[in-house]
Amino acid sequence: MRFVRRHLLTAYAMLAFAYLLVPIAVVIAFSFNNPAGRYNYTWKGFTLDHWRNWDGVPGLREAMTLSLEIALIASIVATVLGTLIALALVRYGFRGRGGTNLLIFVPMATPEVVLAASLLTLFLNVSLFQLGFTTILIAHVMFCISYVVVTVKARLIGFDRSLEEAAMDLGANELTTFTKVTLPLIAPAILAGALLSFALSVDDFVVTYFNAGSRVTFPIFVWGAAQRGVPPQVNVMGTVIFVVALSLMVVNVLYQRRREGQPA
Amino acid sequence: MTHRLTRQELLRRAAFGAAVVSVPGLAAACGGGGGGSASSGTQKLADTLRFSNWPLYIDVNPKTKRPGTLEAFTKKTGVKVDYVEDINSNSEYFGKIQGPLSRGQSINKDIIVLTDNERYLSLMIDKGWVEKLDKDAIPNIINLVDVQKHPGFDPDRDYSLPWQSGMTGIAYNSKLTKPILSIDQLLEDKSLKGQVTVLNDFADTLGLVMLANGDDPSKVTDDMFKSALDRVKAASDSGHIRQFTGNDYAGPLSKGDLKACVAWSGDIVQLQADNPNLKWNIPKAGGMIWTDNMIIPKGGDAYTASVYMNYVYIPAVAAKMAAGIQYVTPVKGAREAASKVDPALAGNELIFPSDATLSKVHLIDPDALKNQSYNEQWQAVLGA
Amino acid sequence: MSFFHRHRGLTPYMLLFPGLLWLAIFFLVPLGFLGYQSLQSGTFDVGYAFDWAWGNYWDALQRYHAWLFRSLLYAGLATLLALVISYPLAYWIAFRGGRWKNLLLVLIIAPFFVTYLIRTLAWETILADQGPVVGLLRDVGVLGDNGRLLATSTAVVAGITYNFLPFMALPLYVALEGIDERLIEAAEDLYASRVQAFLRVTLPLSMPGVVAGTLLTFIPATGDFINAQLLGTPNQAMIGNVIQSKFFNLLDYPGAAALSFALMAAVLILIAVYARAIGTEKLTG
User: A27, A31, A33, A39: which to substitute to probe chain B, counting the most B Cβ within 10 Å?
Assistant: First the structure.
């Protein structure tokens, strides 16, 4: 019985992963497709042409690069700001705590199109902001903060303070306690928040579209290309990013393994 | 995008492009052209032409992967072209630019391209958010086909010039159904139930239905609109119409989820390359034609933009673009220029339609597009 | 005494300041403008003027409450489905993932790298009428002979679920990962069965994650429009579609603004009720 139950969980998890990744498999498969026309809907035959010619679609590479840059910076900034807010909300009582808690949810509840248009209005009225990279970044950080706050809070609530108290009893000051005890323990939550921010940012369309000026991010490019047929190079690009991200994680695992093999 | 066609077609298009450049008439047309090319009076050309367009809506030089005609323009005039393909929907693009334009701010573009079968093009002109064309710099305007010379939204062509046109008709999968040649069939043939889509803009869909009702969509009355709308609503409520789509009918049509749908001519050319069972026709009662127009948003450089527009109206250049874009060119003489180099292309009805074909397609009444009540009723049928 | 110790009272404010400032400038100010816009009246042709047009709100609620309910329903279903799918997944990663945890987390967000449209096109290929999935379901009898999966409410809810899965899975993981396994061992040492240990120890300790995940999924899902647009028929239109239509097609900016606030109010009220039901400590710590 134990055997079944133990493997039931694994089977379920595998099914869930399959559900998540089957569309990715289709995307990867169709990057090898060889359609004669502009549309990439039906399987026509295997080819490596689009992989060889991966840079053959003007503007695609630039769009992808822009999206990745923005996602990287936005997720770092949003994670820092969001983590600080989460710490304040969970650990301290202060005036306006309830209001702040509520405020965190409002950006998530705001329909994208009106949020986008209203933010654009702000940028238009303040000539300091030129539409382009900066405004996209500002917008992305803005809507990611809430997600980081909620994610990190999930770890902070129910966090066992006794470990911190023990550290301080042993002479550590607050900063040391924070960096050596608290931070490592909430690191998974911070990472999760960063990953969510990254995902949100790299995939955002509406808010970016309004506030990007002339810049074209990857989602904007794809939505545009879809008018005439999404070229297989888009699939190639997606596959590459996916593989690179996985590879980085594999490297991370191997690195950790090596470290664990070293004497303490 | 030429590099996604078969190799044969790829080579043919490259040869076509090269041949066009060497056509003797081109040099003369570029250089002379009635004295409007280099400078008109004391006007100066800008360094850069900022041009926003729809994706894959320009010819592409397979060697350099950049728009061939733009490169040629830069070579000829010294004006660099900052070409961005960030328009993917009239309503969304307008939604984005109305912010700055309504505040009197420039959107930093010299040319943008909007379609005449949605209200936004005439809104731009009515609101004064466009610059006047510098007609002195566009002597080639005489090459504009007659049917486009006096459209309702811009009767004297002071603000806009066509870029490319497209036709709306019925597409069907000949493997899955008998030929669907009329709107009556599309909306009422029981064998198609649940496997039909129509377009989500009313100029295309209701225009076709009005024609099927025997009405003329270039002069829409409330009664005409209502009876067309009711027909579509009935078909939608019964589940006969599966969805209202933008160009995302292409996927389901190719995969066989749809037996027939309202579709645009240019898309079908592409889909047929992979799926020869797909057929397109102008409905018996008539089809619709729409045109993407170049306009100069307020704050844009009217002179430089006009010089570019003049260039686009050279027949040989227009022919080259039509070959790459594969929609309908509005330039007289383009077909003749094309036939000298690629007769098969020149004979393709979907790219260079004959006069007989053109007589079967109609324009939508621009006032109908602006009618808020019509828009509201249509959006209600779409579900909102 | 450390700086923080001396200024203890200020600490929360210093932590909050950067993030809240960002939100204040780049969210609250635009929101204020949106509120102002929602009280305007007029048309696009003649222009809009501010005149305390509360009628916009009344109009919004009166005409569109059905869409509002539908949005809440679809979002609710999607959240529930996401929870059911994600909890075992997050549990597995947290307790069995070992050193591969981070890689598995990246796998969870991997679909976002290819953009929404591409993911949806892939699903349309998988769920096509002539495809294997629908074929199987027809053979088995779940779908009628002419049944389909696309362009139905099933497809819309499935689309929302799929796209918000990481927002449920990651917070769940975060809470589960923090559970000290020794607590579970202790429960089992005290004669609890595995199921009992789960129900009495793990599940309650993971509640902050469940709460976080449901909020991060439900709230944005209510405003979703794109799944209904691509995967649904007019009968599946959500409030987001109405707002899109008002904004882009009808150029009714005050109407769109008022409708947005109506949605936000509905969602926030639901959150307040939810917080009451589960106890605010799980929500706010």
Answer: A39
Q: Which residues of chain B have pLDDT under 70?
A: 1-42
Q: How confident is the model at residue A60 (pLDDT cuts 50, 70, 90)?
A: confident
Q: Which residues make Cβ contacts (< 8 Å) with residue C241, sequence separation at least 6? A: B383, B384, C67, C225, C228, C229
Cα separation, C29 vs C49, in Å, equals 19
Cβ pair A210:B270 closer than 8 A:
no
CA dihedral A239, A245, A249, A255 (to 10 degrees): 110
Pairwise CA distance, residues A4 & C100, whole Å: 23
Question: Under a CB-based contact definition with an 8 Å cutoff, are residues B344 and B85 in contact?
Answer: no
Q: Which residues pair with B263 in a beta bridge?
A: B169
Structurally, chain B folds into a number of domains equal to: 2
8 A C-beta contact, residue C278 and residue C207: yes
List the single residue in B95, B372, B375 with the smallest CB-CB distance to C247: B95
Q: Answer whether B278's CB lies under 8 Å from A42's CB.
A: no
Helical axes B372-382 vs B222-237, angle rounded to 10°: 10
Contact C225 A111 (CB under 8 A): yes
Closest CA to B278 of B290, B291, B264: B264
Find the helix or strand (DSSP H, E) in which C49 lies. Answer: strand C47-50
* Chain A residues inside the 8 Å CB shell of C96: 9-10, 13
Residues B8 and B143 occupy one common structural domain: yes
Contacts for B85 with CB less than 8 Å, ≥ 6 apart: A59, A216, A221, A224, B52, B53, B54, B55, B56, B57
Number of CB pairs, chain B paired with chain C, less than 8 A apart: 70
| CATH class belonging to A59-229 | mainly alpha
Residue spans of the domains in chain C: they are 1-29, 39-284
Q: Is the pTM for the entire model greater than 0.80? A: yes
Establish if B34 touches chain C: CB-CB under 8 angstroms.
no
Q: What is the pLDDT of residues C101-138, one digit of tens each?
A: 888 999 999 899 888 989 998 998 898 888 888 888 88
CATH architecture label of C39-284: Orthogonal Bundle (1.10)
Facing C130 at nearest CB: one of B123, B257, B382: B257
C88 touches chain A (CB under 8 A): yes
CB-based contact A42 B105, cutoff 8 Å: no
Nearest to B267 by CA among B169, B123, B143: B169
Contact check, Cβ <8 Å, B95/A231: no
> Which regions in chain C score pLDDT beneath 70?
1-8, 280-285
In this complex, which of C151, C230, C245 lies closest to B379 when CB atoms are compared?
C245
B92 in reach of chain A (CB within 8 A): yes
